[in-house]
Amino acid sequence: MELTVVMPCLNEAETVEICVRKALTCMRENGIDGEVVIADNGSTDGSQQLARDAGARVVHIDEKGYGNALIGGIRAARGKYVIMGDADDSYDFTNLMPFVEQLRDGAELVMGNRFRGGIAPGAMPPLHRYLGNPVLSFIGRLFFPSEIGDFHCGLRGFRRDSILRLGLQTGGMEFASEMVVKATLQGLDVREVPTTLSPDGRSRPPHLRSWRDGWRHLRFLMLYSPRWLFFIPGLVLMSLGLVAGAVLSFGPVYIGKLAFDVDTLVGASAMVVIGFQAVLFALFTKVYAAEEGFLPEDRRIRRLVDVVTLEKGLLAGGALAVAGLAGLVASLAHWGGKGFGELIPAESLRLVVPSATAFIMSFQTIFASLFISILGIRRTRENPVDIAASAAEEAAEAVSREAETVADRESVA
């Protein structure tokens, strides 16, 4: 079978029948060997029977959620290609050929773009059309090497085997973002075609909740991009702190009537420590995610982990600790020079704050080196060849033992 059209369904009695008939008619008119699968997520309005009467195959998905319904329907699909779309009659199931043609041409994921194809009046709330979708799609393109203009279009086609290999896991509306992000990170051939959006045919409110589901999409994009979540903010914060701290270590800085002194130096120190910690978290996340298969392995991170060994990390941390201790000894000497009496904060803190910062970062570096070394321990996994070889050896040993047993019996007889 070439094509399966999968529609998630939760109480879509008003529209599911027309959607199924449109999809089947499109496939029949274009000579496509295909089917329609309704991934029912617990409808109580008779949607299942209406879908069957229209010619669809209904599969029941017990685990609630848009993503759960879709992945269940994709697994149940029999077609080489899958086109997914909502069963609310907002997408044009009579015009599936642009997706099919791209898939036949070798594409692995074909996204619809509603902004290029046309959005009918009333089909998309202004909040989604002018803020939610454009902003989230921009963030998706910024965080990941993607050129997709409409990250959240619900009408999309793909090779079933390619998408199943991605190991999609999210159960809610963020499933739409997860598919695009993982397909992009894994280097799949992702393309885009114009599609239209019409007002849905339901009399009830949609399942989508703007702010809740928008946050879930944004959260997913951030969690799958340690570079933008940790590394870049941390690097900026640490750089600003280092520059400010280096300047203020030599004396106060005046900008007009504003005076920046040791109080600002303490703030700069905090920026350095927090920024350095964020950069380390980016490294931790990338190593862990690659080892567990959440993200593809980053060659730059792997090269960094191979080059910056535990021993080098311990040496770097030790060097920072020595610098910090040297600064603290100098501050004690300064205090001794004052007879161990009351100090002028503007003088003493210029020694204490940078020294304490170096000392803190030394322990961060040492602990990070130890933790990355633990994350980098690769577990031994048996591959299919190893498993087959072990099974063959066991079978050979069993046959040998059986032959010896038969020979012993014959000799006794």
UniProtKB/TrEMBL annotation:
The chain crosses the membrane at residues 228-255, 267-289, 310-336, 356-377. Residues 283-376 form the Low-salt glycan biosynthesis hexosyltransferase Agl6 C-terminal transmembrane region domain. InterPro entries: Agl6_TM_C, Glyco_trans_2-like, Glycosyltransferase_2, Nucleotide-diphossugar_trans. The keyword Oxidoreductase does not apply. Residues 4-163 form the Glycosyltransferase 2-like domain. Keywords: Membrane, Transmembrane, Transmembrane helix. Pfam families: Glycos_transf_2, GT2_TM_C. Signal peptide: none annotated. Belongs to the glycosyltransferase 2 family. This is Glycosyltransferase family 2 protein.
